[in-house]
Amino acid sequence: MTSQIQRPIAQKFMLAVLLTTFSALLFAGLGMLAYDIHTFEDTWVNDLKAQANLVAGISVPTLEFDDAKVAHENLEQLKSKPAITAAAIYAANGKLFATYLAEADEQMRFPPAASRDSVSIGGDQIRLMRRIEKDGEFFGTVFLQARYPLAERVKSYSFILFVIMCVSLMVALLVSSWVQSAITGPIRALTEAVNQMIRRRDFSMRVDKTSNDETGVLVNAFNTMVAEVSQRTEALEKSNKALQFEMQERIEAQDALKHLNSTLEDRIARRTAELDRANEQLRQSQKLEAIGQLTGGVAHDFNNVLQVISGNLQLLQLNVAGNPEALKRIEYCGFAAERGAKLASQLLSFARRQPLQPVATNLGRIVRNMDELLRRALGESIDIRTIIAPELWNTLVDPNQIENVVLNLAINARDAMDGAGKLTIELGNTMLDADYVRETPEVSPGEYVMLAISDNGSGMTPEVMSRAFEPFFTTKREGQGTGLGLSMAYGFIKQSNGHIRLYSEPGHGTTIKIYLPRTRLVEVEVQDIRTSPAIGGDETILVVEDDLIVQATVIDLLTGLGYRVLKANDGLSALTILQSGVSVDLLFTDVVMPGPIRSPDLARQAKRLYPRIEVLFTSGYTQNAIVHGGRLDPGVELISKPYRREDLARKIRQLLGGVRGDEANASSQPPELSEPSEMLGGPAAAAPDDTPRPLGAGPDAASRPPSRRILVVEDNEDANVLLCELLKILGHAPTGVTHPQKAIDAFQSDSFDLLISDIRLPGFSGIELARQLLQGHPMLRVIFSSGFGSQAVGQVDYPAVYLPKPYSLKTLQSALEEAGA
Fold first, then answer.
1. Which of the ends of the chain has fewer CB neighbours closer than 10 A, N or C?
2. Which residues carry this modification: 4-aspartylphosphate (predicted)?
3. Domains of the chain: which residue ranges?
4. How far apart are CA 465 and CA 505, in angstroms?
């Protein structure tokens, strides 16, 4: 009987195992076959693409020089790739340039050149077309044809799959026989054990048996167990209730403990993150404070020097109006002074020391008014798109400074796009919620106006992004940027209680988002005095300036504008003049003054003595005298040093109420000022008594050294032109170039007695350039010019003279004499 009931279950079990094994192997094999075909195809396509890229790379020169023979020889190298049966190179006009066949095939027909890359698979062949490009220029097309043994691959894989399935089924058959024996054996033993229990105990509960197989045996065993289970159920239930109660209490205690531990870890993590952010903010604040103190200490004296130079150059420009050469040199100095003033202004902006005059402003109007300026500055190759949300909120910001920020960011975007691309300026209303502020604790939640500037340029790496706002950090080549554009924007936005974020990815462009707090004040349209006429007047102005050179320059400027000028060296002297009763229309005072009377106190006392007097402050660094919270005090008027004569004239007329109407005053005023192209100014020059007399003039002409042919290598065009002009004044014949290769070419076509080279040149060192030129011209004399100190020259193995920047005519002449020129 045992053998009769065992056989059906064993057969069912074995059949189920075999069917399951066969189905699993079949589906797995088909899936692996599909995956292998896909992988096989990708592998062949990628290999063929790689080979096409290699052929395209070596074919560019042959197409540039129309050398079909070399192109054919290059294709013959494909013999090392037996799988490639044919190849061809097409010229840019689509004509066959060179071909290759692994075997002679008269039926082979090369397809026409495709306009784009393509891959096609047909039967046992695969064909690929690849465009040949270099630096964006299209040169032609590469065609490759190779064998594609897919059928052989499928046949081989199917045979392997068949063998694996046969072996697996045999193993499954053996395993199933062992498993079914292992399962039914314990069941029979259990049945015998239950029958023994039945013989020793009396069980009354029964279950009807419906079959004679293993289930029937289990039913009989179950019936014998029910009686004893029923007897123990009541006691077991009571025990279970007590145990469940204890377990529930334990589980609740464990849950409470887990919750406490988890919240403790979260609190520790949050506290640690807050401390890290606080430390980072402290380090950043300390760094900014250090830079602020450094720039603030230097800016005042530096801007005073620039103001003296700028003012005197403007006065000198009026005196030499008929001398084109002198005007040109003055203009060069003016460009340099403007760059120095801009550099000082950007440093002050980054250090949050720039005096701001914020008013309720609609950024949409600002951006619309800048459209023509941006298109002129960026060029026609930049597609500028402006998106301004309707009903844009107002924000409290300095309009002139926000214009500078937008212009600087747009120019940075243009450089990142190599002069061609799409620039998007977007303005909208946004809300920064608590979740956003939690990640950036220096920002307060609330309503903001968002200004986003996006480009599709080269983007930034994470390393560059981490340093993008640092002053003087730039990825541009030397001479193409100061690295202060983003720093200035960062400092200005922070000083305006705003927030700036940078998003970028290499190859996918950059987006800079600026958030400025919303103001509910009505927009104030500030008059742009830059477009008003620059004229003078006949009022009385009291100039208070402790720097006598600056004072003399300002007095000359104001006198030239027609004003009556009184002067004082400090606040106490100025107060004495005011108390004397003399009529003063405008008090023009420096912010930082020596003596017991500070400039704000002087202004307040002047207002008490003369309620209608106007006060105009000037400074290169305002400190905290008239600036609080980064903003000018209400009612304070300031013109920052260095300033142009035209800007000073406009500012004074704005305060004094414009041009007076009576004809007598109008006739006594000077004519309207001519506008120079740029602000005049420049680097510090030698004092008049230190300026050398030009050679060839006066009694020194007899001792003038002979004229030398000098090659000037300087990548800054303005500095190059200026140095050549100075050398001409000294009686020499200079030739200026801006690149080392041009210097090498100049020596091949001409001869020179002296080389004057900057140390840092594009892609080359001036020291190495001189060494290379000395090999062919051993008598050449060398002068190195640099603003990084004489240690930048280092140890050279040939005679050389060091000329520090900035230099005057006298220091240049001394360097030439030291070099023997």
1. N
2. 590, 758
3. 2-154, 273-357+526-684, 363-519, 688-819
4. 9
The whole-number pLDDT of residue 752 equals 92
CA 166 to chain centre: 63
Identify the bridge partners of residue 131 per DSSP, sorted by sequence position: 141
At position 626, the amino acid (one-letter code) is: I
Q: Please list the residues that pair with 784 across neighbouring strands.
A: 757, 802
360, two tokens: 């309720």
CA angle 769, 775, 779 (to 5 degrees): 100
What is the Cα–Cα distance from 315 to 293, expressed in whole angstroms?
33
Backbone angles phi, psi at 288, to 5 degrees: -65, -40
User: Is CATH 3.30.565.10 what the domain over 363-519 is classified as, yes or no?
Assistant: yes
Lookup: tokens for 39: 């992988």
pLDDT tens digit sequence for 660-719: 333 333 333 333 443 333 333 333 333 333 333 333 333 343 444 567 899 999 887 767
Burial of 631-652, coded b for 16+ CB within 10 Å and e otherwise, reads bbeeebbbbbbbbbbbbbbbbb
Token digits of residue 303:
């801007």
3 state SS of 534: coil
Domain 273-357+526-684 has CATH 3.30.70.100: no
Residue that has been written with the tokens 């298109």 in this structure:
375
Distance CA 157, CA 624 (A): 83
Q: Which of 539, 532, 496 is nearest to 514 (CA)?
A: 496
688-819 CATH fold: Rossmann fold (3.40.50)
Cα separation, 330 vs 622, whole angstroms? 29
Residue in the structure block whose two tokens are 């510090």: 684
**363-519 against 688-819: fold identical:** no
Name which residue leads in pLDDT, 568 or 313.
568
DSSP symbol at 75: H
The span from the CA of 90 to the CA of 111, in Å, is: 10
Q: Report the chain's terminal Cα–Cα distance, integer Å.
A: 127
Compute CA distances 92 → 112, 137, 151, 478, whole Å: 12, 10, 37, 38
640 near 401, Cβ under 8 Å?
A: no
Q: How far apart are CA 636 and CA 623, in angstroms?
A: 14
Q: Tell me the pLDDT of the chain averaged across its residues.
A: 76
Position 502: which residue type? Answer: L
> d(Cα 531, Cα 17) in Å, to the nearest integer?
94
pLDDT of residue 9: 65
Sort strands 421-432 and 382-388 into parallel, antiparallel or unpaired. Answer: parallel
Give the CA distances from residue 654 to residues 530, 566, 640, in Å, rounded to whole numbers and listed in that order: 11, 20, 16
**Nearest CA to 468 among 493, 455, 451, 487?**
487
Do residues 136 and 57 lie in contact, with contact meaning Cβ atoms separated by under 8 Å? no
Cis peptide, bond prior to residue 506, ω within 30 of zero: no
603 φ, ψ to 5°?
Answer: -65, -40
Q: Give the integer Cα–Cα distance in Å for 711 and 737.
A: 8
Contact 703, 693 (CB under 8 A): no
Of the candidates 630, 633, 595, 597, the one whose C-alpha atom is nearest the C-alpha of residue 617 is: 633
Quick one: CATH architecture of 2-154? 2-Layer Sandwich (3.30)
Lowest mean pLDDT among 196-210, 306-320, 382-396, 671-685: 671-685
Q: Cβ neighbours of residue 334 under 8 Å, at least 6 residues apart?
A: 310, 313, 676, 678, 679, 680, 681, 682
Give dist(CA 474, CA 477) in Å, integer: 8
Taking CA atoms, 494 is separated from 236, 426, 499, 744, in Å, by 73, 20, 6, 49
